[in-house]
What we know:
dGTPase, two-stranded antiparallel sheet, dGTPase activity, mainly alpha, HD/PDEase_dom, 4 strands, Deoxyguanosinetriphosphate triphosphohydrolase-like protein, 25 helices, globular, Hypothetical protein af1432
Amino acid sequence: xxxxxxxxxxxxxxxxxxxxxxxxxxxxxxxxxxxxxxxxxxxxxxxxxxxxxxxxxxxxxxxxxxxxxxxxxxxxxxxxxxxxxxxxxxxxxxxxxxxxxxxxxxxxxxxxxxxxxxxxxxxxxxxxxxxxxxxxxxxxxxxxxxxxxxxxxxxxxxxxxxxxxxxxxxxxxxxxxxxxxxxxxxxxxxxxxxxxxxxxxxxxxxxxxxxxxxxxxxxxxxxxxxxxxxxxxxxxxxxxxxxxxxxxxxxxxxxxxxxxxxxxxxxxxxxxxxxxxxxxxxxxxxxxxxxxxxxxxxxxxxxxxxxxxxxxxxxxxxxxxxxxxxxxxxxxxxxxxxxxxxxxxxxxxxxxxxxxxxxxxxxxxxxxxxxxxxxxxxxxxxxxxxxxxxxxxxxxxxxxxxxxxxxxxxxxxxxxxxxxxxxxxxxxxxxxxxxxxxxxxxxxxxxxxxxx
Length: 452
């Protein structure tokens, strides 16, 4: 019997079953229910009112975190299908995730994103900087293993393998921060008196997918690996931003990340083109005539004509073709420093396709994400999050919903209390956070009938 089949029941184990000593169920049932649990969770539904790039009031057409996550799941399934197609006779086939499993991982990957995207993430990290910090990926794990509604204490409680799949940066936040002496000093600065004078660029969180509060669940997930593999998988090395960072990802995570990158670099490009934020001339100069694309010409000018056509069907055809080119280039590599197949096997795109995808991601970042109009909305969201946190911290009894206040007062430490506030705000949609801000701070807005 293959190692994958022998271990299958260990990977389908849920944390609740582990604590209670219960047997795991078969993979087909478990991974199907993993996907169902994510889809039916409140955190997943809230993604429909959280921005991907553009504001929610811009148009009904543009992507939200929900539609983005659905696209990532669809691309993830396509990548797995392609790996099956090209992998006849290969040993890695025994370790590929099922369609249910990869979709569960892809659908869950953004659950922890707060309102206002990375702007809200930085704002919450600033407010939590001395109390365990905030990071969107770590918040995802917290929802899956603690906050979600499927179990009393263990959250959505996905299988061990699905939980491993969402760990983009298998490190604990506190341990990463402890290695950055400059940031340690910076953390001790007094709270800003006026948030509008605060340089938010100094408060980007480190890449760490685990809060200290979820350390036990993290260790349970890694319990299937040898000590050597665990040590290497969680090893931290310095990056160019001052924080240390993990170097490796599990097999399923590599597939999810490729799907995420394709959705970001190509589907988000579609939104920018549809809004008229990217011109044909700009595309020609910075993509088609870029030395990287000249070295790796994946398509001809017919693609550009379709992408910038006045017909939405032509644009959609071009986007679909680009995605297909990326998906069809996937192959399985091996990193022989690891013993376990789920760490050793690594999904990758072809050299040309990866080079062009990185070019597209950079293009979207420079000409869409960092536009003053977009950054201005992000800044506005940051101020909303900062002011809400400050007010809720100062007046929890008056301003928090009763169930949240109960959690707040039952926490035995200041860190625990502030984590309750962070969880509450992180779970808000853009719309809810804006409405609460107006209720609290705009004299002409708000009513006793506006339920919090």
